[in-house]
């Protein structure tokens, strides 16, 4: 009887180790979120978006989740659904329908690491992305 119990514990231990390993390997949502607040009628959006398109292409493989909140008439209902789905409802409420910027957000803490506007040059935007990635990586390495 004692041998069967030991085997059962051994099997359970192996199963727990295998389960933990598969969880560690499963893809997680990126911790850094790049949330664009835009609308078709937004003048600053027309200046900022081409820059963001150019620069975000360089970060396709980076651990960043790109989210767009589009406040164009007729699309606003989908904005609230998207915010709920992404866990960003508080952020959406705080911004209160404003457009013309991108926020870099630490998903775990809710910290806003950068607010990128049309006044940012390409180099400034890249710098903000690099800084935000470094902050998130540092926090993860310290278990924060």
Describe the structure.
With 144 residues, the chain is α+β, with helices and mostly antiparallel strands. It contains five helices and four strands, in the order H-E-H-E-H-H-E-E-H. Strands 2-1-3-4 form a four-stranded mixed beta sheet, sandwiched between helices. Strand 1, helix 2 and strand 2 (64-70) form a beta-alpha-beta unit.
Write a short abstract of this structure.
By secondary structure, the protein is α+β, with helices and mostly antiparallel strands.
Largest sheet: 4 strands, mixed
Q: What is the CA–CA distance across the termini?
A: 46 Å
Task: Write out the strand line-up for the largest beta sheet, numbering strands in chain order.
Answer: 2-1-3-4
Q: How much helix, percentage-wise, in residues?
A: 40-55%
Integer average pLDDT: 84
Unreliable residue stretches:
8-26
Oligomeric composition of the shown chains: single chain
Q: What structural class do you assign from the helix and strand content? A: alpha+beta
| SS strand fraction | 15-25%
How many helices does DSSP assign? 5
């Amino acid at each position: 009887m004692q041998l069967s119990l030991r085997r059962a514990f051994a099997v359970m231990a192996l199963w727990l180790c295998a389960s933990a390993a598969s969880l560690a390997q499963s893809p997680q949502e990126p911790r850094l979120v790049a949330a664009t607040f835009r609308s078709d009628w937004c003048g600053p959006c027309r200046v900022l978006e081409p820059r963001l398109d150019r620069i975000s292409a360089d970060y396709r493989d980076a651990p960043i989740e790109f989210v767009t909140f589009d406040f164009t008439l007729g699309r606003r209902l989908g904005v609230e659904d998207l915010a709920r789905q992404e866990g960003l409802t508080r952020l959406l409420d705080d911004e209160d329908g404003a457009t013309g910027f991108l926020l870099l957000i630490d998903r775990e803490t809710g910290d806003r690491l950068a607010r990128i506007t049309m006044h940012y040059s390409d180099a400034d935007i890249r710098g903000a992305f690099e800084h935000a990635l470094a902050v998130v990586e540092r926090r993860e390495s310290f278990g924060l």
